[in-house]
Amino acid sequence: MPRIRKVEINHFRCIQKFEWCPSPGINCLIGPGDSGKSSILDAIDFCLGARRNIQFSDADFHLLDVDTPVSISITIGELDDALKNLEVYGMYLRSFDSQTGKIEDEPEKDSETVLTIRLTVASDLEPSWSLVSERAEAQGLSRNLIWGDRVRLAPTRIGLMAEYHLGWRHGSVLNSISEERADASAALAKAARDARVAFGEEVQDQLGETLGIVATTANELGIPVGEKVKAMLDAHSVSFSEGTISLHDNEGIPLRGLGIGSTRLLIAGLQRKTATRSSIILIDELEHGLEPHRIIRLLDSLGAKEKIPPLQVFMTTHSPIVLQELNGNQLFVTRPAANTLLTVGIEDEIQGTIRRYPHAFLAPSVIICEGASEVGLIRGLDHQRVANGHNAITALGVALIDSGGGDPETPFRRANTFRSLGYRTAIVRDDDIKPSPKVEADFKANGGKVIAWRDGRSLEDELFLSLTKDGVSNLINRAVELQGEDLINNHIKSTSHNRIDLNGIQEEILSGTITRDSRLILGKASRTKSAGWFKTITWMADVACDIVYPDLENADPGFRTLIEDLFVWTSDGWE
Q1: What is the CA radius of gyration of the chain?
Q2: Smallest Cα–Cα separation from 31: which of 362, 323, 393?
């Protein structure tokens, strides 16, 4: 079962230079749009596909520079006997070191024997395929795979037109299942003749007048057409092209009428049956047309959970379900202008992050929030900013993560998972319990961004200390609406050791001011662990939208700067 060992792409579409040694099993490409995921699949397809020609255009050249040729090289391992035939391919056999990814032109004893196929496209837009060998080139020799071997190596592409594979067409999966072939020529010829005759008999009454005029005119002109002119199907128009034989269900309904998801599932299942003959499969946007449970079924049929992979699969996805079902060694992150793919990995911290926050791996930028309150704050502020003409952070490719509290270094562990894979990463944290200075310094030194509330404050402290008197009054009123007056009063009394209660706070506000001491009490009371006043994403989002954003213009300048700094960071990552 041949496997792709190395992919090398130069000057193709958005890819300037790229090298990658894929996994022998599932290779799921994830990353932002326009980062080259589909182009990598196309490159594999174009290089290995059993085509005699491909239509290229100037747009297939990196930056439209047609003076530099497109070059796509695919190195194939696990060669069968036919591909290691010395008489046919001896001059082109090479060696591959799986530990280093290095290819030597001479076969080496302790390395795998491989073949490298190269597709080159110059400014004339004519594709040229050849086997790579410095030895052969030095002797002026050149050759490609023989056609039968190209057909056997060709990957199966499952795309929007997956129904192509439900007929016995050139390159379809049905032709790979077995050596069986239906000789339909005699049956089709007879069917064509019968159809012509049957149509001629049925149409006489419908076209009688016209046929009579034609016959009379022909006889008048001395044109021999016989006594009667007939309307029959033209012999040349009754033809059957490739794909005439296709799959139908029990009622005779063509299976091409199946939904997109069902068609993809069926083709993947058939491809699994043909693994000994054709073992490479390409799927763009695997989740297309599938519900979550069927996505899982499709992944199972591709062998995603099997220790010995039956197929080598190259696929792209934008589905969090797919990420949750795969392990980190099956996920590869693409980045614009990157010259390789990064394996996500299977360390406990990484695997746990994938399970909890799969959506974040599909965004180019990630904000790690210390808790749900920070997530809610950013969502609410963002909602109001959008209403006032700003771009939404989701439109800017930013994902929010609730790191779930824990020790003060938990957000940094989460963030480093993403940062190490090339994601733009920021942390929004409380300052009441500080992380290790070294941990934070290292994160910043490696390009991470930290937004921390000031002077040992939590978010609630920051809000009650930074908003105006009216803003604080609105926070109290919202807390009473959510939690009830008795609970809010008890929290204030408990926090102040009975020095002040809710009524006393409200009297201060009515007098036209509120003391710093009262603000501190409110901040501490509002984050009571057993019943925080705004401790859900929804509650804090509403607070941010209805109270914080309208109050920002007159709030403490330092707090306003922190918020502005955060949203500037989200915009800076947009290209």
Answers
A1: 34
A2: 362
Q: Give residues with Cβ within 8 angstroms of 208, minimum separation 6.
A: none
Alpha carbons 397 and 191: distance in angstroms, whole number: 58
Domain assignments of the chain as residue spans, ordered by start: 1-155+278-346, 363-575
The torsion defined by the Cα of 306, 310, 313 and 318, in degrees rounded to 10, comes to -30
The residues, ordered by sequence, that sit 6+ positions from 317 with a Cβ below 8 Å of its Cβ are: 28, 29, 30, 285, 286, 287, 323
User: Is the distance from CB of 330 to CB of 317 less than 8 angstroms?
Assistant: no
Please name which of 319, 321, 333, 329 lies closest in space to residue 284, comparing C-alpha atoms. Answer: 319
Q: Phi/psi of residue 397, each to 5°?
A: 80, 35
Sign for the pseudo-dihedral over CA of 547, 552, 556, 560? positive
| SS3 call for 262 | helix
Q: Which tokens in the block code for residue 109?
A: 């004893």
HSE at residue 141, side-chain half, CA atoms within 13 A, is: 15
Strand pairing report for 424-429 and 70-77: unpaired
- Looking at the chain, the number of H-run helices and the number of E-run strands are 22, 17
Measured in whole angstroms, the distance separating CA 154 from the mean position of its chain's CA atoms is: 23
Neighbours of 201 (CB within 10 A): 10
Q: For residue 236, what are its two tokens?
A: 């040349």
CA angle in degrees (0–180, nearest 5) for 422-307-108? 80
At 230, list the tokens.
Answer: 């007939």
How many other CB atoms are there within 10 angstroms of residue 205's CB atom? Answer: 7
Neighbours of 5 (CB within 10 A): 22
Which amino acid, one-letter code, is at 516? R
Residues near 397 by beta carbon (within 8 Å), at least 6 away in sequence: 32, 363, 364, 365, 573, 574
Give the residue from 358, 456, 370 showing the smallest Cα distance to 406. Answer: 370
CB atoms < 10 A from the CB of 288, how many?
18
Is residue 521 within 8 Å of 496, Cβ to Cβ? yes
CATH topology of domain 1-155+278-346: Rossmann fold (3.40.50)
For 455: left if phi > 0, alpha if psi spans -120 to 50, otherwise beta; the answer is left
Cα–Cα distance measured from residue 311 to residue 277, given in angstroms and rounded to the nearest whole number: 11
Q: pLDDT digit of tens for each residue in the chain (575 aa)?
A: 799 999 999 999 999 999 999 999 999 999 877 788 999 999 999 999 888 889 999 999 999 999 999 999 999 999 999 999 999 999 999 999 989 999 999 888 889 999 999 999 999 999 999 999 999 999 999 999 999 899 889 898 886 555 555 665 665 656 665 666 666 666 666 776 677 667 666 666 777 777 677 767 666 655 565 666 666 665 455 555 555 566 666 666 666 666 777 776 776 666 566 555 568 989 988 888 888 888 898 898 888 999 999 899 999 999 999 999 999 999 999 987 778 899 998 888 888 888 889 999 999 999 999 999 999 999 999 999 999 999 999 999 999 999 887 788 999 999 999 998 989 999 999 999 899 999 999 999 999 999 999 999 999 999 999 999 999 999 999 999 999 999 999 999 999 999 999 999 999 999 988 999 999 999 999 998 878 999 999 999 999 999 999 999 999 999 999 999 999 999 886 54
For residue 422 the two structure tokens come to: 């090339």
